Amino acid sequence: MEYEGWKVGQEIRKLRNQKNMTIEELSFKLGMSTSHINQLELGSRKMSIDLLYKIMGELEADANTVLAIPVKSEKRKGISIDAELEGIPSEKKMYLMGIFSQMIQTFPGELC
């Protein structure tokens, strides 16, 4: 799977618009500059795992939705990464989140 910053940015914009929220309002709630969020929505800026969690909270969406990850099979349809993490013991959950964070930080080239 390849990270596609433009798709992620479009999904964030769509979710923000569904909440009738301006980019300025989202920026304020996230404690980020409007320029930072605009660059994220345009796909020209990387997103940290911390920012992903903040966006998930403000837009009330799971990670799959924010990251524009399509559901591939009927068996997994409607099951988010967050839901799957719910059933994992906290030690394993922290381990997996650390791996995901490391993957984002060491990804060759630009994520967004």
TrEMBL record:
Signal sequence: where?
Answer: none
Q: Which ranges of the sequence are coiled-coil?
A: none
Q: Which GO terms describe its molecular function?
A: DNA binding
Q: Which Gene3D superfamilies match?
A: lambda repressor-like DNA-binding domains
Q: Which residues form the HTH cro/C1-type domain?
A: 12-66
User: Any idea what this protein is called?
Assistant: Transcriptional regulator, contains XRE-family HTH domain
Species name for this entry? Anaerobium acetethylicum
